[in-house]
Give the backbone structure.
Amino acid sequence: MSRSATAHAGAAEPGRPRRERWRALAVFLAFAGFYLLLASRHFYATDEETVYRLTESLVERRTLAMPEGVWGLATSAGRDGRQYAVTGPGQSLLAVPLYLLGVASASLLPPGARGYATRFAVSLFNPLITAATVSILYALARRLGARGGAALGLAAIYGLATTSWPHGRTFFAEPLTALLLLLVCYSFRCGTEARPAYGWLIGGGAAMVGALAVKPHAALAVPFLGLYLLARAASVRGEVGRLRIDWRRTVPLLAAAGIGAACGALPLGLYNFALFGHPLRTGYGGQNASDLFVVPFATGLYGLTISTGKGLLWYSPPFILAIAGWWAFWRRCRAEALLCLGIVTAHFAFYGRIFAWHGDGSWGPRYLMVGLPFAILPLVGLLDGLRARPIRLALTSAVVAAGLGVQLLGVLVNFDWYILRSNEQARHFAPAASPILAHARMAGERAGEWRERAFPPPNSAVMTDGFAPAAPPPGRPAERPGLFPRWTTGAGVITLHPARREPLTVKLTFFDHRPLAARVERPTILLGGVPLDDRAVARQDLTGTGEGWIYQFTVPPTAIVGEGASVTLRSATWNPQASGQGDRDETLGVFVHNVEVWQGAEPLTIREALPLDRMPETPRQRFWWFNDDRNYWETRHHLVDHWAWYLAVAGFSRGQALGWGILYGVASGATLLVGLVLGRGSLPASPVRAMGGGKRRRAATKGRGVAGTGGRAV
């Protein structure tokens, strides 16, 4: 900001710095609560599992070495022969407090769910990081002279209408890297204004090395941040438009940033040397460029920009608005405009050629996430005076609404569900196979699927609880198997939905494979939870040995409560493996071969409305339970990619699930509420009005910065 801008801001708002801190805090809390409430609380890729396992090793084993023989790790051999994570240590170290929180809260769940609890807690990390990025983006826009409404609009658009929201639900390293690099920019800006602030510069230098400790690829942004600092330090009283090197000003500023960088580089260099034998060698090793840069640049650039499978313009539509606003941003904030242009261009140039340019296992182009805050920042140049231009306001609103819709599709539907069902080439480049369209279809299909299960049509009999697949298949069957045969798990519940309030006839065919000694107590029938009199059930022994049975009985109209009647086939349970009769280590009841129901001469359609298989206890099986719901029966899909849904179907007791959900939901909701309440008194009363200002205000502030608070170079 220019000298006149600083003087203007200080005169107009004596308490502005303090108020701005409260405003930034309000933005952070509001977005943190929002993200936490709509999070998924699980991992999507083995990259996340690797970062988590390093955190686990630090806490549980007090070592940087990764455990041997563990699924899903991306490791590299260290100089001592042990395996270490290829990722940097930064994010794993910062996640330690959340891991400890997971350990402390695991007592609320069954003993086998400890791994679920710790991963649940660690996955809180990126929602908080993304909320912090939104807050810093708001603060940076204000520092550049933007009005409160424009700055708030920029932050909200970034946080809700770009891929920052879906990526913030993961445990990938890109969100933290983006935050640290944005913090570097903000720190360098604060530290090089008319009155230098050396503390900001030291912190900025340390944050820059911290980004490298999280993701070495952050080096793409380092040269541009260095040039930005040099331009700011060499300017006259912080005015980049008047470059003239004053060594008495420039050297101390650069030295302060260098001290901060050295404070971060020393431990990072020691870490790399201790593990990999060289201060500059990381877990990624010395990969040859010939193996890395194998994609034609035109293909990668097309894929990253306008392809329907990964193009940034489709997955973060506000980027279009940022391009439109770049010229206005350049006229007023030249150093920041060049910084944004350099960082974004470098990421397109680098990732456009690497073999994994798409960064699959994510929503949109994952690797561009690091530069996304810089790609969106020029949008603030378009938001200024927006209300006074109705056509521009309408177009901007439409693009932002499209961006919000795209992110909702990435949030409601787990992107792995479609990735595992589709062809990579078609998914990336064929418009008809775009994940955006596929997620829209899947969201509608799953809503219809579960609506039908929750509200079955008349003349149907629905298996609602207590049934299990016949046997775990050795591989995925070529065709979807039928409804039967099925095991019960002790009490198989069938809900009848007749079209009329008339008697129903039910016929159950099943085999009792329990050991002979366990068949002393024969299976019973319950209507509405009440045992049916033995004389009301016609039993036929199919095998003559007491193993195969047909049970037939009548459901009277009095048992039809509301729109349905409940029939339960209850039996004592057994474990085939414990009984020496197979390898299946599960608690089972009887083996149902068929269910038939009639009302008069009209048969009822047999359907299933079964809960998903309970969440497994092993990390690998649990990972696929979340991310690959192409299970044996192919219709037992997750409804939405949301923590509350997973908690409800995980198989915990009702008390455990409610207790855990209420505790988390209240904490997240309280965070959101505090942010909104705090923001109500500190943020602009009318953000839209603040974004506008009308022609008279523009005329009065002509020649000032982005928001009319200073000179040309802000």
Q: What stands out?
A: Residues 1-14, 686-714 have pLDDT under 50 and may be disordered. DSSP finds 29 helices and 15 strands in the chain. The longest helix spans residues 247-276. The radius of gyration is 30 Å.
